[in-house]
């Protein structure tokens, strides 16, 4: 985006997805003819917070809330360390040239929790299914063995009854 006074701002990644405790880079690139003032604000459902403001090559004023979590870069970018759920929201950057012209940029940050309960549920479900399949395998093995024993007994009885019939026939004659 380029303003009439010659200030331009490029936001290469306007949407950032992060997980809790991750470090994120809110990357921008600005250019202007004179000295610029860069200001970052965070807007979320909890309110608006000024993160940092600095002049190129001059002072840096970091909000006390972000004091140990923000690193600034000459191109206007900032790095936010150890993000939490409260860091989700809109990040607005304003670049103001010394003559009063300015330009704006926005980055949307989504922060997700790694839900270990879901992983725990999957592990328990997997263990349960493995146990059920092991029981079914044992049951099928027992059924197979029982079937073989039953077939042997039936074959043995059948042979015995045939022999008796032959003997009876011989006696009657």
UniProtKB/TrEMBL annotation:
It comes from the Eukaryota. Residues 13-112 form the Immunoglobulin domain. Its main location: membrane. Coiled coil: none annotated. Gene3D superfamilies: Immunoglobulins (2.60.40.10). Keywords: Glycoprotein, Membrane, Signal, Transmembrane, Transmembrane helix. The chain crosses the membrane at residues 119-143. InterPro entries: CD2/SLAM_rcpt, Ig-like_dom_sf, Ig-like_fold, Ig_sub, Ig_V-set. It is found in: Membrane. One of its GO terms (biological process) is positive regulation of excitatory synapse assembly. GO terms for cellular component: axon; dendrite; plasma membrane. This is VSTM5 protein. It comes from Podilymbus podiceps. The gene is Vstm5.
């Amino acid at each position: 985006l380029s303003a009439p006074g010659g200030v331009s701002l490029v936001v290469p990644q306007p949407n950032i997805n992060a997980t809790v405790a991750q470090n994120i880079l809110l990357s921008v690139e600005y250019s202007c003819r004179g000295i610029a003032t860069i200001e970052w604000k965070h807007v979320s459902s909890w309110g608006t917070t000024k993160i940092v403001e600095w002049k190129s090559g001059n002072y840096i004023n970091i909000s006390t809330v972000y004091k140990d979590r923000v690193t600034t870069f000459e191109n206007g970018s900032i790095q936010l360390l150890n993000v939490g759920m409260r860091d989700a929201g809109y990040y607005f950057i304003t670049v103001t040239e010394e003559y009063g012209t300015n330009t704006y940029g926005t980055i949307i940050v989504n922060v997700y929790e790694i839900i270990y309960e879901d992983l725990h549920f999957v592990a328990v479900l997997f263990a349960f299914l493995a146990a059920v399949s092991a029981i079914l395998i044992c049951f099928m093995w027992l059924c197979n063995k029982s079937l073989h024993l039953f077939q042997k007994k039936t074959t043995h009885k059948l042979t015995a009854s045939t022999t008796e019939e032959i003997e009876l026939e011989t006696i009657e004659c």
